[in-house]
Amino acid sequence: MKPTFRLLMAGLILGGGAMLLHSLPAPFLAQSHAAEAASATPAAASGVQADTRPEIVKRGEYLARAGDCIACHTAPRGRLFAGGLAMETPFGTLYSPNITPDVQYGIGSWSQEAFFKMMRTGRKPNGELIYPAMPIAQYTKVTREDSDAIFAFLKTVEPVREANRKHTLRFPYNQRDLLYGWRTLYFREGEFKPDPNKSVEWNRGAYLVEGLGHCTMCHTKINMLGGSSKRDQFAGGLIPVQNWYAPSLTSNKDGGLGDWSIKDIVDLLQAGISDRGAVYGPMAEVTYHSLQYLTDEDIRAMAIYLKSLPDNSGRKSGPSAPTNTNVFALGAKIYADKCALCHGANGEGHLQHYPPLAGNQSIEMDSAVNPIRIVLNGGFPPGTMRNPEPYGMPPFAQELNDTEAAAVVTYIRTAWGNHGQPVDARQVNELRNAPLH
C-alpha cells in the first residue's frame, strides 16, 4: 500500500493515546508495562536463524509483495528496504526503519523468533512498542510459517549500512507509553482463524485481505482516539492528511462490490482497470507495488472474500438529487467540451481505458472528494503487467475555477440517473492544495 496511506495514521493514533492516558489510573499502566515487558524478547540474536533455502526465500519474496513492504520501507531514490521514507502527519514526521540485514542499522542481528514476535506482538526485540503506523493489528494475523518465509527473504536482500532517522513527533505524541492505552482498546493479538463454514478459497482471501493486505487500514474510518471499531470494518472513510476517500466495501450504496462480477474485481485489483472503473490515487500504488504480482488464484480468493462483504441494502435509487438549473447547465457545457470525447456524451465511457461515469458508484458516493480530485489533478491508473501503457486523464485545475469545477462534478454526479449530491465551490477550493500522493 502507498506508504503515507498507511503511516500517516500514527499521528492520529498518538493523539488518541494522549487523551486516553489521562483516563487510565497509574496502577493500570504499571501492570500493562509489566505484563507486556514480560513477553518481550531479551536478545534479538537468540533462537533459530533464517531458513534461506531457495524455495523458502522465493515464497517470502512473494509474501513481502502481498504485504507491500517495499512501499513503506524504501524511500524515493533510496536503497531497497533501507527505510528513511518520511511520513508527514498532523503531529510531526515519522520515518520508516531499515529492514535490510545490516547488523548495525537493520535486522541483521535479529533471529527468526524475534522477527515473528515483532509480527505477532507489535514489539521490537528489545520490548519497545511499535507505532501502529505499521499495520500491527493486521500483521498479528500472519501465520508463523509465512512470517518465517518473509524473514528468510529479507535476510537475503543487500545489507544497507544506513542509520534510521528519528521520528520528529511533537510532545506528547512522542511518548511511546501512550501506546499502552491504544493497544488495550484496539490491538487483539492472534493468528487468523479460518471460518469452518466457508470455503478454502474464501478463507484464503480473508487471510490476505485482513492480514498481509491490511485493507482495513484504509477502508475503515478511524475515530477520535485513532482506532477503529469492528462495526465499522470496511465501511470506508476519509484518509487524513492525504484527503482521499477510501470507499466502503460493505455498502452497495457507497462503493460496495455486491453487484460486481468476480472478473471485474480481479481486473481492478490486478490490472488496475476493469469494465467498472480504474484505480487512482493511493490505491493505484497498492496495485503497482503489490497486487499485480499476486497469483491469479490469490487475487481470485481476495475477490471472492471482498464480494461477500456488502450488505443487502441495494444500490441508490429514486430520482436524482435536485440541482440548481444554472449550475447543471454550466456543468453540462463543460462536460461536453472537455470530458465527452473520452467518457461519452451520456457517460457511457469507452472500455476499458475510459471508465463509464453513468451508474458509477465511485461517482455517486456520499463523499465527493475523489471525483473533485480527479477533475482537478487528473491521474493515471498504474502501469501493470496486464496494462503496461495505461491511458490517463489530464488535470483541469489550471483551466477551471472553483465554480466551474464544482459545476462539472455536480453534473456527472447527478446526470444520467446518477444519485450523487451536488458540490459547491468551497468544497473544490478546500482540495486544490491537497497532497498529490
From TrEMBL:
Keywords: Heme, Iron, Metal-binding. Its cofactor is heme c. Heme c 3 binds at residues 339, 342-343. Binds 3 heme c groups covalently per subunit. GO terms for molecular function: electron transfer activity; heme binding; iron ion binding; oxidoreductase activity, acting on CH-OH group of donors. Signal peptide: none annotated. Heme c 2 binds at residues 215, 218-219. The keyword Metal-binding applies. It comes from Paraburkholderia fungorum. InterPro entries: Cyt_c-like_dom (IPR009056), Cyt_c-like_dom_sf (IPR036909), Cytochrome_c-type_DH (IPR051459), Membr-bd_ADH_cyt_c (IPR014353). Residues 55-158, 200-310, 326-416 form the Cytochrome c domain. GO terms for cellular component: membrane. Gene3D superfamilies: Cytochrome c-like domain (1.10.760.10). Heme c 1 binds at residues 69, 72-73. This is Cytochrome c.
